[in-house]
Amino acid sequence: MILTVTPNPSLDRTYEVQALHRGEVVRAETERMDPGGKGVNVSRAVAAAGRRTVAVLPLGGAPGALVAELLDAQGIEVAPVPVAGATRSNIALAEADGVLTKINAPGPQLTADEQELLLDTVRERSRGADWIACCGSLPRGLAPSWYADVVTRAHASGARIALDTSGRALLEALRARPDVVKPNAEELAEAVGRPLVTVGDALKAAEELRGTGAGAVLASLGADGQLLVDDAGAWFGSAAVHAVRSNVGAGDASLAGFLVAGGSGPDALASAVAHGAAAVQLPGSVMPTPADLDPAAVHVTADVPVERLLTEPVLPAEAVS
């Protein structure tokens, strides 16, 4: 069983449009409504892979009730934490050329009692979990050290923990030594406070995160592929993608693929790449099923192409101290 923790879930609406023109009326060709949030997406991908998952998340108001209903319809066991504020609603606009524009709401502010109930629920539902995946931004009211507390408690109970967050929350959590962290290129650049221009730059940054406390680093480099760095070495994985339809949740699908394949080593990296490549070819934040995967299109090597230029070099918005 894989337990996911999403402190700031959402109700996601995705609209596919031919092109987005600022200041004009834009007519959508399709509309989707999905339960959202990074951990929620991981649970959806785990369930799509035929594995049991439990999603712990604070839910409030009509949007929260709809999120729970949508997850239940997908066969996902929900462990809701009732909160007074309404669950946020996010909007994604997917253009025909693959460009995605997202509008993410801030979400409710959790009270001290709600925060404690969230931690208690994670502890209670984590018994027997193979992995605990803590994912996404922290809602208002939670301190940057909140994920670090979850990591410490998880390790005390003998559970392995995967973390997908950014900024101060990531750096605080690294001190608690999570088993796996999964930054994207932007988050990786922000964490080390320097630009990433080549795959080699990303490799050095991942090694730096390991030196700071991460057991392993699974780094998503967008269209260029993914890196895995752990005690046994480093691997680079990539896959051919015919057409990008939406990259919403692709990184979350990758993390799910990594965890359902054991959460370590090149085989798990290959699963992560296959899941991510399949996800970007599906509409909205639809998570891939085994039938959507194309393992033959995946290439994993220990010969990391350190000189390869990234398709989109990354400049950190601001160094995190």
TrEMBL record:
One Pfam assignment: PfkB
Residue spans crossing the bilayer: none
Family matches, as InterPro entries: 1-PFruKinase, PfkB_dom, Ribokinase-like, Tagatose/fructose_Pkinase
Domain of life (superkingdom): Bacteria
The keyword Secreted is annotated on this UniProt entry: no
UniProt-recorded Gene Ontology molecular function terms: 1-phosphofructokinase activity
All residue ranges annotated as the Carbohydrate kinase PfkB domain in the record: 12-290
Top enzyme category: transferase
EC code: 2.7.1.56
Annotated family: Belongs to the carbohydrate kinase PfkB family.
Annotated protein name in UniProt: 1-phosphofructokinase
Encoding gene, per UniProt annotation: pfkB
